[in-house]
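Researcher: Sequence recovery benchmark, item below. Answer with residues only.
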């Protein structure tokens, strides 16, 4: 943290007061870097890791530079997933209201008619590429008066195959505009896309230049026999913890793991692409409220999840590469908080995981990670009366910025 305030960055009194009422009084590093340039009207390219506070880094300039009397929509934020789009809206709605601006999320799985009506009367659109193109094709509104364009988590949108849609959407926006480009990496296609869309940009790189895992997180690698993985997971879930996010590779694997955890007395919910939008929102709401403290998810489904109180992330299936590891474990230890990341691995996965750990500078987490069987006091040997994990301390109200 820095003693520098939002007011020092040129943020208006109305927005400063709105932030203060939410318990946000000092900017994070990425916000200190970006907000001043963006409010001044500069195009910005920002490399920023997940959990760094980048939503307000672009959200504050958006609401400062857009006026209530501007033609609508005046600003567009592109995001890779429905979850991230709705969370961006939640994050900036308060400061937008302070400037008499309307904000709408546009994403698949919801009614087209209502979204079209809301989007056409809103100053700021936060949209996933697919649904935005659907609405544009129906003539619901035009992007011809967009003054500010934000691409959030651009690298993930490219990973998900949205490049053609992004090109078409950007082409529909005015060529004279302000562009803010945020990505966890600026290598390869992401860097080329940033250079193509931004005009004389200022570039900010927040966090380590090499891909390294968050040092604020405790990283542990636990080798277990394949047939004992569920029991080992149950053992970890019975430890003192808060909310826990468990990653698996496949949609079917997520559903299967939830059932197997249930057989051990551990309540969990699954979140993946085969679920309807309503089911996904319900699962996330139950998780965020703490009604269910274990969420089992695939990589794509979990993208954009920003839930306060995630103390543990557990890789039931090890990630395929270092980038996926960083994105997964980044769901905990956010905005300077502590967290625990645990990866379960079988003997035949040890070589690949050891290589991945080396790439991330986490060799220390492998020390003593030999074969392990669940203890008799956990997992399948536990009685139903011990099925629930230890009671967690009461979660405090959020008082800092989220991504």
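Model:
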């Amino acid at each position: 943290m820095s003693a520098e305030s939002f007011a020092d960055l040129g943020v208006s009194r109305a927005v400063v007061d709105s932030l203060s009422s939410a318990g946000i009084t000092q900017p994070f590093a990425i916000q200190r870097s970006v907000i001043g340039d963006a409010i001044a009207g500069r195009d910005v390219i920002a490399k920023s890791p997940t959990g760094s506070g980048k939503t307000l880094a672009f959200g504050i300039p958006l609401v400062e530079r857009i006026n209530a009397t501007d033609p609508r929509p005046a600003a567009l934020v592109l995001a890779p997933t429905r979850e991230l789009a709705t969370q961006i809206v939640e994050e900036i709605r308060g400061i937008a209201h302070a400037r008499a601006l309307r904000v709408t999320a546009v994403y698949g799985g919801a009614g087209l008619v209502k979204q079209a009506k809301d989007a056409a009367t809103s100053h700021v659109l936060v949209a996933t590429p697919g649904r935005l193109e659907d609405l544009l094709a129906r003539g619901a509104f035009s992007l011809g008066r967009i003054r500010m364009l934000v691409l959030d988590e651009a690298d993930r949108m490219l990973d998900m195959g949205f490049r053609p849609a992004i090109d078409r959407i950007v082409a529909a926006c005015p060529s004279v505009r302000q562009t803010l480009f945020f990505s966890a990496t600026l290598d390869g296609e992401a860097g080329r896309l940033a250079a193509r869309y931004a005009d004389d940009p200022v570039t900010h790189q927040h966090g380590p230049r090499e891909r390294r895992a968050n040092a604020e997180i405790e990283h542990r690698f636990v080798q277990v026999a394949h047939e004992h993985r569920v029991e080992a997971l149950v053992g970890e879930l019975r430890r003192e913890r808060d909310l826990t996010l468990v990653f698996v590779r496949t949609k079917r694997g997520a559903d299967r793991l939830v059932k197997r955890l249930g057989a051990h007395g551990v309540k969990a919910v699954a979140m993946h692409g085969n679920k309807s939008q309503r089911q996904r929102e319900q699962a996330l709401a139950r998780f965020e409220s703490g009604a269910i403290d274990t969420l089992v998810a695939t990589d794509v489904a979990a993208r954009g999840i920003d839930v306060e109180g995630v103390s543990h992330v557990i890789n039931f299936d090890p990630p395929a590469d270092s980038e996926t590891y960083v994105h997964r474990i980044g769901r905990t230890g956010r905005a300077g908080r502590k967290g625990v990341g645990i990866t379960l691995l079988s003997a035949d996965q040890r070589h690949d995981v050891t290589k991945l750990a080396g790439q991330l500078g986490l060799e220390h987490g492998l020390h003593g990670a030999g074969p392990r069987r669940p203890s008799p006091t956990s997992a399948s040997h536990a009685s139903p009366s011990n099925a629930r994990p230890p009671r967690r301390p009461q979660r405090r109200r959020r008082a800092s910025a989220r991504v």
